[in-house]
Amino acid sequence: MLQVHNFTKRYGRIAALSDVSFSVREGEVLGLIGPNGSGKTTLFECMGGVLPLDGGALVRDGRAVSGRERASMLFYLPDQIVPWPAQTVRWAIAFTLGLFGGRAALRDQVVRELDVEPLLDATIGSLSKGQRKRALLAIGLLMPHPLLLADEPFEGLDLRQSRDVARTLRSYASAGRTMFLSIHQIRDAGRVCDRFVLLSGGRARGEGTIRELAAMAAARGTSAGDDLEEVFLALT
Amino acid sequence: MRSRRKATGEREEHAEKSFSAISASSAVPLLWLLRKEYRELIASRAWWVLLFAMGPLVGVTFISAMRTYAEASGLNGTAAGVGEAFSPLIGIWAPTFSACEVAAVFLLPFVAIRLVAGDRQSGALKIEAQHPMPAFGRVAAKALVLMLAWIVASMPAAAAIALWQSYGGSLYRPEIATVAFGHLLNAGLTIALAAVMAAVSEHPSTAAILTLSVTVGTWILNFIAAVQGGIWERAAGYTPPAMVATFQHGLVRLDVVLVAAILIAAGVMLAAVWIRTGVAVGRRVRETAAWSAVAAAAIFACAFVTPSWDASESRANSFPEPDEAALARINGPLHIEAHLAPEDPRRADLDRKAIAKLRRVMPKVDVRYVSATSIGLFEQTSPHYGEIWYELGGRREMSRGTTAESVLETIYDLAGIKAPAESDEPIFRGHPLAVPPKGAATVFYGLWPALVVASALFARRRYA
């Protein structure tokens, strides 16, 4: 569907991303795994066009994707934002649906599945972190773009909510929506993702399913089995 | 209990309906942005503070102007005067609308910065910026809503007009429209400046400091112009205070309107360049330089645009019509060399009473001021100080007069034409009004603030 090709981003002397390359396949849930400060958010912001790249490109069918193509192809849902804090969740959903021409027919279903219904008349600024995360995920799922990039979709959610959200995300992926999720909790990632990109120190350390990554780790002389945490530690 | 449940049900039904109503018009992203900016404005405390303050601000200037005007008109047994002193434009509307200038400088920037920088602060920009709509469109939506907000905030000035009429005051609509238009342009400039600063800076407080710094910079420019004259004077003619002063005298100058429009468009464009966080800084700097160069070239071209319209009832910016007709028949370029220092009051007289009027009817007037000092006090003993030399068609003549009559007389002499007979058009006698501003304090200090507070509470309940 899309290739991230040699993404490079520097903040002054610090290299946040160094020649990061991997691919996103249609209909999959791809997980971006890495510790805090590994460059996950920077990678997403560069993919979403929110930050400028110093090098590299998004590539599709062998050619670089233009800004307009990217705008119609992917939607990036940032973490740690409180957009339109004085507006209600109901209005924010309606606004983003209207602005982006989103999937209005799915609105009630998404709102129900993410348990956003009780929050509809609350202002976004008054929501807790977890409530806000669910409201923003609802917005993300309702966007018309075939690829959804969600930064830390489980951040602020309790165990039950994490499981419910993971199930919801998987169901939309099964229906054909491609997802790319940045997750620092490896256990959460293992529950929801089909494949993984391991990021550490601004470099991609591996890409593939758990088995493929375990094989890579084994090739380096570490037997990690099917445990994603062990695989991650072995490869980074 | 039942009524409470019913109310909740109605609320849910209403909310559901509004949900559907909003979604129904999803085909027009710009309309959505306009709605969003409107709602964000309503949610902004800065906006309500501006709205609240406008009543007392306009009130204090209107009431003070009314009292002075009434006393000069014979209230409380004072002797009534005549002439331009009783032009409502100069006596009432220029001071009353000056409250709008104060609000545009000290309050409006904060409303504009809140609307532009708020998206970046909250993270909403990261979502909205993913829409393929050009950034110019997104900033223009904010600017449009802010301009409409300014019109609403100017309602106390409209209330002042209504009160003036209710006291029996004479209203000359073209001059009121001119003053209001000047202040609208001034607000547009403030909004554009604040938008650029909010887009360039990371934090709203930095944007506020930068905006106020530019405003203070224009004051400094005006001060330098008053002292130095020359090119500084020319540049200062396009600063917001000078622009507003032109309109407050009832004069609509096309060059000033065009320069203001260019500056507003350039401001919106530069803000659009800088809110694109996904574009490399180097490219944004290059685009800024390119747009600035385009704007500078356009402004330079505007300096050659001469049409203007005198909208004042007293024709304060024009010579009598027969003189204008006579001057229009003079073809050659007129060169004037005035040996007067920038701060000499005679120079201000010459400028305002003669040269500004001459430029309106004679497109080829070239004026050069010569002085060795800025105040002229120590040049008085210089033999040529105070001389004003006129050159037309190869002939030169000197005069020391700075009144319109003496300037016209010299020009007619040089041109070899007879001064036209005095016009039989009626002389503007002014509109004295010896009436105290009864009820104005109640309107501006009581009703308006109460209305704003009630609206703020209603809006809070309605939208949140």
Chart the SSEs and their pairings.
The complex is a heterodimer of chains A (236) and B (464).
Chain A: E1 2-11, E2 14-24, E3 29-33, H1 40-47, E4 55-60, E5 63-64, H2 67-73, E6 74-77, H3 89-100, H4 107-113, H5 129-142, E7 147-151, H6 159-174, E8 178-183, H7 186-192, E9 195-200, E10 203-208, H8 210-219, H9 228-235
Parallel strand pairs in A: 3-8, 3-9, 6-7, 7-8
Antiparallel strand pairs in A: 1-2, 1-4, 4-5, 9-10
Helix pairs in contact in A: 3-5, 8-9
Chain B: H1 2-24, H2 29-43, H3 45-72, H4 88-106, H5 108-122, H6 124-128, H7 135-153, H8 155-166, H9 173-200, H10 204-228, H11 230-236, H12 240-248, E1 251-253, H13 254-274, H14 281-302, E2 308-310, H15 321-328, E3 334-338, H16 345-361, E4 365-369, E5 388-392, E6 395-399, H17 404-415, H18 440-463
Parallel strand pairs in B: 3-4
Antiparallel strand pairs in B: 1-2, 3-5, 5-6
Quick summary:
Chain A has 236 residues and is an alpha/beta fold. Chain A is built from nine helices and ten strands. Chain A has a single domain, classed as 3-Layer(aba) Sandwich (Rossmann fold).
Name the assembly state.
heterodimer
Largest interface comes to:
A-B, 41 and 36 residues
Percent of sequence in beta strands of chain B: 5-15%
Ends of chain A: how far apart?
26 Å
- The percent range for helix content of chain A is 25-40%
Structural class of chain A: alpha/beta
Rg estimate of chain A, integer Å:
18 Å
**Helix count of chain B?**
18
Q: Unreliable segments of chain A (pLDDT under 50, ≥5 consecutive)?
A: none
Question: Which CATH C-level class of chain A is it?
Answer: Alpha Beta
Biggest sheet record of chain A: 6 strands, mixed
Radius of gyration of chain B over all CA atoms, rounded: 26 Å
Listing every helix as H and every strand as E from the N terminus to the C terminus, the arrangement of chain A reads EEEHEEHEHHHEHEHEEHH
The number of helices of chain A is 9
Biggest β-sheet description of chain B:
4 strands, mixed
Average pLDDT confidence of chain B is 88
Series of secondary-structure elements of chain B, N-terminal to C-terminal: HHHHHHHHHHHHEHHEHEHEEEHH
DSSP, total strands of chain B = 6
What is the CATH topology classification name of chain A? Rossmann fold
Strand content of chain A: 25-35%
Count of individual beta strands of chain A: 10
